[in-house]
Amino acid sequence: MRKILACLSVVMVCFTGLFTVLRQLYDEQVYYNSIEETTMSEKIYPSETGLSLQEVLPQLEAISDSYGVTIVRTDENVIEEDKVITYKAGIYTDTYLSMWNLDLIQGTTGNVDDVYVASYDTGDEEQKGTLRNVFGNTNLIVETLSSYSEGKDLSADGVYTLSFDNGNREAILNELSSVFGIPVEEMTKPSYVKSIAEPPYVLLIAGFIGIALVFVMVSALYPYIIMKEIGVYRLLGWDRISIWHKLNAGILLVQLSFAFFVGIMLKLLFPELPLSFFFAYAGMQLMVILGTMLLSSAGMTVIRHNRIADILHGNIHGKAAGAICYVVKCAVFIALLFTLPGLSDNIHRSGSYMQAISSFEEVKSDLTMTNYTFTDAQFSAYMSGSDEFTDQTGMMFKELESTADAEFSIIQQVDDEYLSFYERWSGIPYQPIQQEKTVIQCNENYLEDYTSWFDEDVHSYFAGSDLVYLVPESIAEQSEGVVGSLWYLFDADKPEDWTYRIVIYPDNREQIFLPDRSSIDAGNLYAENPVFVCLHDRYMEDKYGFIAQSAVNNPIRIADTTDNRAAIQQAIINAGLEDNQIVFDSAYEEGFKEYFDNLRSSVILMGGIVAVIMFVSILSSWYIIRLLLIVKKKEIVVKKLIGFRWIDRYARQLFFFVFIYLIGFIRMIIGTDMSGTVLYVFVIAIDLLVFAMTLIKQEKHSVVQVLKGEGMA
Questions:
Q1: Listed residue (250, 222, 424, 233) closest to 325, CA to CA
Q2: Rounded Cα distance, 305 and 150, in Å
Q3: Beta strands 437-442 and 531-534: pairing type?
Q4: What does the alpha-carbon distance between residue 27 and residue 697 come to, in Å, rounded to a whole number?
Q5: 484-527 pLDDT per residue, tens
Q6: d(CA 182, CA 382)
Q7: 3-class DSSP state of 240
Q8: Largest Cα–Cα distance in the chain?
Q9: Which is nearest to 420 in space by CA: 496, 490, 478?
Q10: How far apart are the C-alpha atoms of 15 and 259, rounded to whole Å?
Q11: Of 79, 59, 84, 85, which Cα lies nearest the Cα of 71?
């Protein structure tokens, strides 16, 4: 038992050290990402300016001098000499340099005209100082904007951080708006937001708390395991402090030594760790060691509460230790009730996603538009109120419909709440449809895949001026209400000449896979008997704006063949989009794969937390039985020998366990789905199995001891 305590204390030291290291790593990433920011900073995001950095540099320097504003440009992922480098290049003011919190391990920042510091030795004689780079995972260079742009053909587009007096904000932004030729509102709108993933602190904390709870229970049980040894020490006249020192000094020494050893190893592995890290590390380790001392001291109160004769004869009082184990048992089950629904939800979602991944195997090679850029002319047209890019992508798609059999589909989920919200717009009262219905707006190529569903030739649905709705027989009676509530899907204002035709088709059991992000998030991976909206040319033009969406929601699907790839390149050229760097690739590889990977990580995280809780719960059951059979060995053995049933011998313990189980079961039934309840029953089954096995084994051992005359003096 002493070795177990020592091992648990070492594990807690390791958890504490790992937590401190990960926190330092995260803090360093945040620091490098925002190193140029002060309390008065703001970012701007000029894009599609058509200007070079050298063109705007004199104007930026003039604005900096006039308003006393520091302007720092950030360029990430610059590849130089097999290194990925982030540049922070700026026009600096004297007041800004005095406020800048640069953590240099050597050298200086220089002055406003020759700032050049880096997180590594660049080998450049102009480098003035070196930034602390503890883990060596960031290559950062900070220099002046003039030196950075010299001899380089760089665009003025990018991310700039302004540090200024708030009183001049409007004037500075207006000046910069004139320089870049972009309205202030557009210039201050981020094109993307960079996020830094935090380490899995929740799992670390859960693991540490789990180990700590086990340590608490072992500490409570420890004095009872060595009770005779304690009795001998007391018989020899040792005082309580001497006994405590004899029994616990070795454990504390191991813990303290290992904490010191880990600290030394961290310094050797990461020599640039700051002094503040070691203060934080020492503080956390000190808390762990003090907690260990407190627990061991509390456990030793048994020395005072039990007489020497009782100790030697095995008549031991264990209410305090038993209470600790019961409290831990109750605490972990409460934690389990809070975490199981989350795990159940993630498992349910991951099950659906695994099904989606399986379906993606058939279509993951299908191509969609995954990336593009604007040209200057297109952006200027957009700023003036027209949308040349949408018109051109529409031309491209129209050609691909005939040359590459391009499919087009927009998927939406419609229910009564959705219809009632738009009732006042349509002017036609909707009729309840009782269940959520999938609406698929599609082109002719898409619908050809389902020709067998319909009595007419699918090409007839795209002829004429009427907009054709294909409605399943199951909601035929509500078809007018459904269609009347869906007109707004095609225009902000209801067209005066809007005419439509409803075609009822027979219900069937065939399901359609819906490979878009919204359907997967909602758990609607497959549609049965959807409403099809047949988009002929007149209405298709209103949908071309959807082509610029991200890969996970892009409506285009084209089979990946050599001929189709050639057709795509030709359509891009014919539409005048050759300068837009348009990329057609797999929607699965470009968006969904990462999405599924993130979900898998979430399931593993929740599963890890539940596993820790289950581990502590099972151990608490084991310790409760072990303690019971130590403290009440005589009573239980006598009851067994004279014929008491096991349910009578352990009635109190069973009552407590069943009470916890029933409360949790009620919570699971009310607060989660069936899979959560099944998980809970599984946890209870394991807990009861450990309870029964421990009971049988320990009780048999106690009977053998008593029959041999041990502990029955």
A1: 222
A2: 81
A3: parallel
A4: 51
A5: 656 555 544 455 666 788 899 999 888 888 776 666 666 567 78
A6: 12
A7: helix
A8: 107
A9: 478
A10: 11
A11: 59
